[in-house]
């Protein structure tokens, strides 16, 4: 197909994320990607400030990841997981158990982040039933979160600010507290601590679980909070035997400067979801981990965990996930993420106080500029592409989550792209 044909056929038939049909703006056709650059069909190259939605942490066409896929392709691309198993999945499960916070012992593999959250919710519900408490079937969370686009995850997304306000009368009604006070370094707000504790204790006899994104709330608004609130949730949920679920789909694998964001708080959840960067951005794969206590509760009375995706444990995806974890295991990522943090700070801090800018915040390999108005997407995108940078702002947020391997020169380009988007949008 010619590049023009690609765009024409796309416009006629292809739905894109959070888009109307027909789309209002044409997407940019990509021919290939390598390192931290996307190459468009017209030959232009864009430094990717998004890691393809926070997944491609090692960049594109990484030789080690490419080789892992090719090697696995020579053995088998897929086999069913019912009654069968294979080394790529087993190896991956063992690595995740070793790397994740203590106590998480069992791994359920699925195809996407949203499904891993569905599985986490199902684990909580089945755990409560196994413990003889079927009335505990609601979830609690704080506002400002994002947990995916399928229905149960949507019910714990931010009920107002999120993309799911359309569904308020369709979704199960969950228990919400206020959003956590802003700021990773902000002092602990005792009134908020009391609010969290009260909400969980007041609803304890109807709560199946508590689910939050630790430290960074991503697609719900790119907000950071003091890790202490996770310790508060850990204590109160333990007191009432309510499983605590950490959704580390966005934060996992080093993005916040720790391998998992839970480590900032020094607490371990009962259930944890990972996805996005799990395969280094190569293939769709997610996992839900849980403790032995959760597994035993679910299995009480001989019950099974009632879930089993067709492509569960896909060997290609597991093989590239193992290779990605191997790259992380080489141990260079903490220095890389620290370097990215420094570059994002120095590149973005000067925007504080610029016209239209409400806040600038950086944590790990995450840089956010929040405006006092909705971003003009078309103008902001045109401005960044003109500077050779790919960003995808949303709502009032222009942000970057670049691959960890992005060098200082390209990081400077990205922050200049953010500045250009701020000026344009
Ligand atoms: C992206 C995301 C999800 C959903 O993952 P998908 O793979 O898009 O289904 C869930 N939770 C968080 C925190 C996410 O960032």
TrEMBL record:
- Reported EC number(s) for this entry are 2.6.1.62
Q: Provide the cofactor list for this protein.
A: pyridoxal 5'-phosphate
Cite a single GO MF annotation: adenosylmethionine-8-amino-7-oxononanoate transaminase activity
Q: Where in the cell is it found?
A: Cytoplasm
Point out residues bearing the modification N6-(pyridoxal phosphate)lysine: 276
Q: What class of enzyme is it?
A: transferase
Q: Name one Pfam family in it.
A: Aminotran_3
**SUPFAM superfamilies listed in its UniProt record:** PLP-dependent transferases
Q: In which pathway does it act?
A: Cofactor biosynthesis; biotin biosynthesis; 7,8-diaminononanoate from 8-amino-7-oxononanoate (SAM route): step 1/1
Q: Gene3D superfamilies in the record, alphabetically? A: Aspartate Aminotransferase, domain 1, Type I PLP-dependent aspartate aminotransferase-like (Major domain)
* Keyword tags: Aminotransferase, Biotin biosynthesis, Cytoplasm, Pyridoxal phosphate, S-adenosyl-L-methionine, Transferase
Q: Where does pyridoxal 5'-phosphate bind?
A: 113-114, 247, 309-310
| Positions bearing the site annotation: Participates in the substrate recognition with KAPA and in a stacking interaction with the adenine ring of SAM | 18
**Catalysed transformations (reactions):** (8S)-8-amino-7-oxononanoate + S-adenosyl-L-methionine = S-adenosyl-4-methylsulfanyl-2-oxobutanoate + (7R,8S)-7,8-diammoniononanoate
- The residues that hold substrate are 53, 146, 276, 308, 392
Q: Which family does the entry's similarity section mention?
A: Belongs to the class-III pyridoxal-phosphate-dependent aminotransferase family. BioA subfamily.
Function (record text): Catalyzes the transfer of the alpha-amino group from S-adenosyl-L-methionine (SAM) to 7-keto-8-aminopelargonic acid (KAPA) to form 7,8-diaminopelargonic acid (DAPA). It is the only aminotransferase known to utilize SAM as an amino donor.
Whom does it interact with, and what assembly results?
Homodimer.
Q: What is this protein called?
A: Adenosylmethionine-8-amino-7-oxononanoate aminotransferase
Gene responsible for this protein? bioA
């Amino acid at each position: 197909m010619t590049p023009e044909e690609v765009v024409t056929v796309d416009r006629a038939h292809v739905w894109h994320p959070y888009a109307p049909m027909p789309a209002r703006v044409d997407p940019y056709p990509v021919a290939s990607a390598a390192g931290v650059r996307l190459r468009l069909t017209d030959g232009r190259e864009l430094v990717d400030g998004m890691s393809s939605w926070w997944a491609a942490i090692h960049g594109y066409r990484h030789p080690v990841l490419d080789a892992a896929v090719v090697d696995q392709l020579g053995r088998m691309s897929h086999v069913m997981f019912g009654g069968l198993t294979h080394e790529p999945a087993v190896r991956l499960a063992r690595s995740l158990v070793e790397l994740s916070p203590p106590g998480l012992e069992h791994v359920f593999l699925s195809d996407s982040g949203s499904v891993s959250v569905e599985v986490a919710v199902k684990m909580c519900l089945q755990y409560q039933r196994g413990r003889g408490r079927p009335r505990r079937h609601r979830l609690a969370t704080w506002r400002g979160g994002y947990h995916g686009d399928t229905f149960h995850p949507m019910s714990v997304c931010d009920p107002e600010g999120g993309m799911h306000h359309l569904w308020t009368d369709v979704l199960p009604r969950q228990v919400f507290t206020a959003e956590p006070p802003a700021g990773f370094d902000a002092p602990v707000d005792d009134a908020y601590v009391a609010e969290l504790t009260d909400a969980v204790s007041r609803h304890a006899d109807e709560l199946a679980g508590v689910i939050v994104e630790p430290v960074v709330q991503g697609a719900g608004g790119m907000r950071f909070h003091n890790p202490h609130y996770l310790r508060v949730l850990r204590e109160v949920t333990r007191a009432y035997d309510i499983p605590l679920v950490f959704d580390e789909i966005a934060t996992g694998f080093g993005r916040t400067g720790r391998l998992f964001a839970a480590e900032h708080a020094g607490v371990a959840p009962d259930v944890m979801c990972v996805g996005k960067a799990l395969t280094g951005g190569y293939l769709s794969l997610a996992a839900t981990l849980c403790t032995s206590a959760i597994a035993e509760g679910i299995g009480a009375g001989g019950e099974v965990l009632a879930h089993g995706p067709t492509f569960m444990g896909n060997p290609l995806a597991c093989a590239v996930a193992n290779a990605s974890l191997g790259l992380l295991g080489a141990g260079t990522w903490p220095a890389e993420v620290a370097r990215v943090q420094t570059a994002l700070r120095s590149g973005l801090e000067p925007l504080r106080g610029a016209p239209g800018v409400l806040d600038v915040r950086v944590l790990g390999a995450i840089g956010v500029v929040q405006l006092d108005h909705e971003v003009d997407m078309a103008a902001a995108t045109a401005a960044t592409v003109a500077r050779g940078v790919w960003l995808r702002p949303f709502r009032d947020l222009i942000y970057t989550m670049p691959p960890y391997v992005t060098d200082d020169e390209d990081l400077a380009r990205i922050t200049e792209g953010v500045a250009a988007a701020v000026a344009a949008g």
